[in-house]
Amino acid sequence: MPFGGQRFEDVEITKKYCTVLQGIECCGEREFLRDGFPCIKYSGHYFVTTLIYSVLLGFLGMDRFCLGHTGTAVGKLLTLGGVGIWWVVDIVLLITGSLTPEDGSNWNPYV
């Protein structure tokens, strides 16, 4: 996975340059390379919010609109959640982790 997975073991770790803030004295270099930063992409999608949208307004495709799946959201809106079937399937997909944001970002900003 390019940005990390759902579990801690799946997330890749990288190094990053850090700079000491102004006004802080330090005995070493002011810029240094630090290891242990997770490689994740987070774009502000919250799992609980999306799940609430899916349960309450899923038949209108609100959950798919929030995740960026615009094409399927319009189809879900026009068919009223596939006459309820698509609505229930999307709730199950969200809970199992199969339905994620379109841009491939993670649900959690911190790992």
UniProtKB/TrEMBL annotation:
Residues 44-92 form the TM2 domain. The chain crosses the membrane at residues 46-65, 77-99. The keyword Membrane applies. Its main location: membrane. It is found in: Membrane. It is a multi-pass membrane protein. One of its GO terms (cellular component) is membrane. Keywords: Glycoprotein, Membrane, Signal, Transmembrane, Transmembrane helix. InterPro entries: TM2 (IPR007829), TM2D1-3-like (IPR050932). Belongs to the TM2 family. PANTHER family: BETA-AMYLOID BINDING PROTEIN-RELATED, TM2 DOMAIN-CONTAINING PROTEIN 2. This is TM2 domain-containing protein.
